[in-house]
Structures are given as structure tokens and as C-alpha cells.
Amino acid sequence: MQPGKLIVLTGPSGVGKGTLVKSLLDRNPQLHLSISATTRQPRSGEVDGVDYYFLTRAKFKQKIAENSLLEWAEYAGNYYGTPKEPVETKIAAGKLVLLEIELLGARAIEQTYPHALRLFILPPSIEELERRLQSRGKDSDEAIAKRLERAKIEIAASNEFDFEIVNNDFETALIEIESAIFSCQSQR
Ligand code: 5GP
Fold first, then answer.
1. What's the rounded Cα separation, in Å, for the pair 162 and 110?
2. Ligand 1: distance of its center to the CA of 80 in Å?
3. Domains in the chain and their CATH numbers?
4. Which residues pair with 79 in a beta bridge?
5. For residue 100, how far is its CA from the centre of ligand 1 (angstroms)?
6. What pLDDT does residue 184 have?
């Protein structure tokens, strides 16, 4: 059996990670996305247990106390974390598991899974990122401002990652991600 592998995809909010991940999963059924827990309110159309496990802050803190999260971080005023058990079970079964998480979580994974493949998705420019965040119309002005502030910190750390991929042309970015995942598979 091939050893399982953890793939971490990080990049600022609004860079298009969600859409890239959706296409990656559609095109590569051998990839399994980890469903995170969060204390953020569901956005319209988001489904509990599909997009996230939406938890109260008390419940999230209980998960931390129980040590049932592989990593967690506070982001723009909410908690986000990766449930440990599903990831460990899939890795042990030889599967490729994708985590779509922010910078602090990616750093934590580097400690626990040093062989994880870590990819950072960059916007073509910070101006374009701001435009994307505003045009998707999902967040308040205050939330967008917090996300942009965090984006600058994250982008400054992008060189910590194994691959930096610019999401300018969507299809090109997708192919670059696939080639990073599948060409590295045999070496890790
Ligand atoms: P959003 O609120 O836009 O869904 O996500 C905000 C940020 O939280 C994104 O950068 C996303 O990658 C990150 N995120 C989602 N799930 C997790 C998680 O389980 N752990 C960490 N550390 N970050 C997460």
C-alpha cells in the first residue's frame, strides 16, 4: 500500500482556494478533503458537516481540551480547526488528505507532519485580492478589512512553503497544484 500523505493548501482569504479545491476534488477523486470545525457563522448556502462543522465557542474549546484537533487557530475573530481522527484514519489507510487552512495551522502541521506537502496560493497582487474579496460579496466591510490585514501577513510568509502558486489564470494554477501533488508523491 502507498503511504498516505497530507497536503496543506494555504493562501489569503479571497485568493480562490475554495474554487481551486472544488476543481481539484472533482478532477482527482483520490484526494480527500478534511472538513474543518469553525465558530464562524455559516454563510448563505453553507451546510453543516459539508462545508464546515459549525460549532459554538464552548464546543470548540471542548474539542481543544479533548485534544481532538490536529491543529487550530483563531482567524478574523473566529476559531478554525482540523478534526484529528478522520485525518489520521485516512492517512493510515494510505489516502491523500487535503487540508485547506490558514498560515498558523500550516505551521503547526509542519511540526506534527514534517513530510506534509505545503502549498501556498498567491493572488496576482494585493489590489486584485481586495477586488476579489469585495466582489464575492460574502463578508462585511469590517470582515474584509480584517481578512486583508491577515492576507498581508500570510503573503509575507509564503516562502516558508514548498510551492508558491499564483492564482492568476485559474486553469494554470490548478495544473501547477496537481503537478506539485502528484510529481512529489513518489519522493515523500
Ligand atoms: P473562511 O471563513 O473564509 O471559510 O476561512 C477563513 C480562513 O480559515 C481561510 O484562510 C481558511 O483556509 C482557514 N481555515 C479553514 N479551516 C481551517 C482549519 O481547520 N484550520 C485552520 N488553521 N484554518 C482553517
1. 11
2. 6
3. 5-186 (3.40.50.300)
4. 74
5. 7
6. 60
